[in-house]
Specification:
The protein is of the alpha+beta class. The protein has two domains: 117 residues, D-amino Acid Aminotransferase, Chain A, domain 1 (2-Layer Sandwich), CATH 3.30.470.10; 154 residues, D-amino Acid Aminotransferase, Chain A, domain 2, CATH 3.20.10. The protein has eight helices and 17 strands. Strands 8, 9, 10, 11, 12, 13, 14, 15 and 16 form a nine-stranded mixed β-sheet that branches. Strands 1, 2, 3, 4, 5, 6, 7 and 17 form an eight-stranded antiparallel β-sheet that branches. Helix 2 packs across helix 3. It is globular and about 55 Å long.
């Protein structure tokens, strides 16, 4: 992708002109926060999923790093819509990012101005394995960093160095994705997705207090499950619970709802998307494409 427009510090610029200095603070010290948002083609035209919630999380992430983004929540929401419109995409992935820019080098970011950018692109299948076939996962040897090291409620670039090491380890070992445990050996999430297990018809997902990101797709699934009479528990999950689960799936903006077929060479269920995973996936897709009478109205922001 080399055409289209990127919103950079208040202006739409050509894709190839959205540049930063090589001495940008965030490049050297990982002082950046970001979001992943989706725009979907719905029955009423293009709409952005949970835009306000994503922008609020971006602002909250910035607070953890003493960032004044320089724009109000409403201005950032308008900028996202403007960027989607400028690129003429019916469906796309949206990446807002705020970061400390070029100024004074050194660990302290405070002397540097914060820059904000918004880019969009078409993101096809994020993890291997189709709608039916489950992804192959392994438990990573890398422990998930926790709140003693970095603010885990912030969706920060620094956190994803940990994720990148786990993902590369999994891929090099022949798997699609990694599952990360915390320092207590509890299941937290995948390298870039939240995780759910299903046992005897009941859902469970790790709590944010254990180190899991408060994912908005995760939150959406929890609300959809409760609305449709599916029991959902937020609790600690032990590693061996993964192996004996009836179903396992991942959630994330890029991955959406992704069934898991295998963990550490152990087949989960029959290795394919299970009944409840399919049900939740169908419910989620109805929402994002504007076919749900309740949640589509509150979670979708029309582009036009």
């Amino acid at each position: 992708m080399t055409d289209g427009k990127i919103w950079l510090n208040g202006s739409l610029v050509d894709f190839d002109n959205a540049k930063i200095h090589v001495l940008t603070h965030a490049l050297h010290y990982a002082t950046g926060v970001f979001e992943g948002i989706r725009c979907y083609k719905t029955i009423n035209g293009s709409a952005i999923f949970r835009l306000g919630d994503h922008i609020q999380r971006l602002i909250d992430s910035g607070k953890c790093y003493f960032m004044d983004l320089g724009y109000s929540k409403q201005e950032l929401e308008r900028a996202v819509i403007e960027t989607v419109k400028a690129n003429g995409m019916e469906e796309c992935y949206i990446r807002p990012i705020a970061y400390y820019g070029y100024g004074k080098m050194g660990v302290n970011p405070m002397p540097n101005k914060v820059s904000v950018a918004i880019a969009v692109w078409k993101w096809d299948e994020y993890l291997k394995g189709g709608a039916e076939k489950g992804a192959r996962l392994m438990v990573s040897s890398w422990a998930r960093i926790d709140a003693r090291a970095l603010p885990m409620r912030a969706k920060a670039t620094a956190n994803y160095a940990n994720s990148a090491l786990a993902r590369v380890e999994a891929i090099k070992a022949g798997f699609d994705e990694a599952i990360m445990l915390n320092s207590s050996g509890r299941v937290i999430e995948a390298s870039a997705e939240n995780i759910f297990i299903i046992k005897h018809g009941s859902l469970a997902t790790p709590p944010a207090t254990s180190g899991a990101l408060e994912g908005l797709t995760r939150d959406s699934v929890i609300k959809l499950a409760k609305e449709n009479g599916i029991d959902c528990e937020i609790r600690d999950i032990a590693r061996d619970e993964l192996y004996t689960a009836d179903e396992v799936f991942l959630t994330g903006t890029a991955a959406e709802i992704k069934p898991v077929g295998e963990i550490d060479n152990r087949t989960i269920g029959d290795g394919r998307a299970g009944k409840i995973t399919k049900q939740l996936k169908e419910l989620f897709e109805a929402v994002v494409h504007g076919r749900d009478e309740k949640f589509s109205k509150i979670w979708l922001t029309p582009v036009n």
